[in-house]
Amino acid sequence: MLQVGSMAPAFELPDASMEMIQLSSFRGKKNVVLYFYPRDGTPGCTLEAIDFSDHEDSFSECDTVVFGVSRDDCLVHEEFRDKHGISLQLLSDAECEVMRKYEVMTEMDHNGQSRACVHRMTFVIDKKGKVRFILRDLNPKQHASEVLKLVRQLHGH
User: Fold this and answer.
1) Which segments in the chain show pLDDT lower than 70?
2) How many CB atoms lie within 10 A of CB 148?
3) Domains, the chain, with CATH or none
4) Which of 42, 65, 88, 130 has its CA 20 to 30 A from that of 23?
């Protein structure tokens, strides 16, 4: 099980512009906030993405980049981003490979059928690639502010 102090699992995923983002490219340069969410366009996920975008400068001041990850494909991310003026990068994990590595999915039984369910979870990864904080089941309204407090603590503010 992924725990605080563990090395963050490596990944490479496309963003809404179909550019590949590698976690390893930030090692030694930036802290990374990786937040997983169920789906673009839902009220909670929209609020969350807008809030993270609104705090993007504050995260940047702490040498931190923020990525939202869902199963939505790049085109859906692009539409969602453009419709709501979201500035942070949204990554597509359509095959759920990264979600499995970060253990943010569970199988739910729904009317006799097994369905994958994505949990709202956030990982704060330091410049060395270590997981420093894991947040589970956050309220979308306070999510960005709570994560920013932790990032500031990590950054020494």
Assistant:
1) 108-110, 112, 114-115, 157
2) 21
3) 12-155 (3.40.30.10)
4) 42
